[in-house]
Amino acid sequence: MKKTLYLLPIVFLLLASACQATPTPTPLPASTPVPYRAAMISEAQADVDGLTNPTRYFIDLVVDVENLTLTGSEQLLYTNNETVDLKEVYFRLFPNTPGYGGAMEIERVVVNGQEARSIYELNNSALKIPLAKPLAPGEQLDITLDFLVRVPQDNDQGYNQFVYSDGVLAIPNFYPMLPVYDDEGWNIELAPGYGDAVYSDTSLYLVQLTVPQEMVVATSGSVVARADNGDGTVTLTCASGPMRDFSVVMSDEYQVVSDTVGQTTINSYYMPDDEEGGREVLEYASQALQAYNELFGLYPFSEFDVMETPTTAGGIEYPGLIVMNRKYYDEKGGNFEFTTAHEVAHQWWYSLVGNDQVDDPWLDEALTQYSTLIYFEEVHGKGVADSIRESYFEEGYQQTVEEGRDAVVAQPVAAFSPEDYGPIVYVKGPLFFHALRQQVGDDAYIEIMRRYLEQHKYGIATPESFLAIAEEVSGQSLDEIYHRWILSAESD
């Protein structure tokens, strides 16, 4: 997570009260009825039952805004869906990463009812739990972790995404999270602070969130119940549909304005002085959701939230929720609209279709950038979209070449310098998708996108699987343009 844009200044510049004492939370029983379907539109409710042994998170979190601490207990039901025995499991502790700048302590680990040993790794950003006996394919673990998180104030780490600042508390990925296990093993590498850090499987979440009663709260998924605790706090029960991670943003100052696209309610949360910007971003998000629904396939969730926050990124995407840089809220069009459309497109290319954002960042970021260009074509016309493509993408890439900074797109985030990551992944990368569209035609391109979503929805895609779908749909070899735009550089 998480997540930012990079754009050159040619056309758009996108860089990416007090709480009463509350008891220590306890794990939720695995038998608790969970209203996951409430977070889905009617056409997508069956998706919940269609998941194969998804990981289920049951999280109880108490938020102390005065002391900036999060006291949590997480019960996790994890099934080994791999083909090999697992001798250990890992959790990512994102608050401890440089891009987040917080601090997480794991206070207790229980595996299948027994106290378990755990080992911090990677500068405390990963937690290894050796298993008493290997977990065979198809077997399930019941893991409980008690944790304490300290949230920084006015964070200068990363994109100021995990922070309490100017009355806004943003706590994405505040909980211990399972990474993806694949042919590389557990993916726990420490990502650079200037790229996306989360590589996770789709899971189901039930979160009980205790907060000061005056807080206006938005989360991934939907709030399905609210209980007044009689001590100045309320407990919100939040349920997700199939999502890759879970984010929470709150403020006692937020105002909300809403719209509806199909069966999805779109909420724009803004600060009191930014009503015009709050309404503006609601319009952009609604237009983008409508366009992508028609082009790629239905957004499956019943709610989508847009948050004004102090992030220093242009915007950051999370499943069901995006945060926007407050500097845009006194603008109209331009950066504000492009950033919004970009982050909304990530609901398809990150949230629904996942990929390894650490090792293959171009697969979601470059595709999202090009999808944003298609948004402008749909909403503002081909002439506007062509102008953006020419002046920003094509001229921007040519400038990179002339400066001798061209590079292969298909590289991990860490292979790029902070200065070169954006021009290569966000500017050059989208030109591959444009070349693809030119070669196969408009109808085939959109069919490729629909098929890509259909075959990888809630799953993990790779560059190879994308190419296979594109070649199957088009009936053409794409080796030449793939090598030209993704695998080579002008200096080669």
Number of helices: 10
The helix fraction, in percent, is: 25-40%
Looking at CATH, the homologous superfamily of the largest domain is tricorn interacting facor f3 domain
pLDDT < 50 runs, ≥5 residues: 1-33
- End-to-end gap: 32 Å
Rounded mean pLDDT score: 92
- The neighbouring-strand order within the major sheet is 5-4-8-2-1-13-16-15
Shape: globular
Q: From the helix content, strand content and strand pairing, which structural class follows?
A: alpha+beta
- Percent of residues in beta strands: 25-35%
Q: What is the highest CATH level, the class of the largest domain?
A: Mainly Beta
Give the count of structural domains.
Answer: 2
Global Rg: 22 Å
Number of E strands: 22
CATH architecture of the largest domain: Sandwich
Q: Determine the CATH topology of the largest domain.
A: Immunoglobulin-like
Q: If you had to describe this structure to a student in words, what would you say it looks like?
A:
The protein has two domains: 36-255, Immunoglobulin-like; 361-485, Neutral Protease, domain 2 (Orthogonal Bundle). By secondary structure, the chain is of the alpha+beta class. A hairpin with a 4-residue loop joins β6 (119-121) and β7. The radius of gyration is 22 Å and the shape is globular. It contains ten helices and 22 strands. The protein has helices at residues 46-50, 275-295, 334-345, 347-352, 361-380, 382-402, 418-440, 442-456, 463-474, 479-485, and strands at 55-64, 69-79, 86-92, 103-111, 114-115, 119-121, 126-135, 140-150, 163-165, 168-170, 181-182, 185-186, 203-212, 216-219, 222-228, 233-239, 248-251, 255-261, 264-270, 303-309, 315-318, 321-325. 50% of the residues are buried. The strands form five sheets. The chain has an eight-stranded mixed beta sheet, with no helix packed on it. Residues 1-33 have low confidence and may be disordered. 29% of the residues lie in helices and 27% in strands.
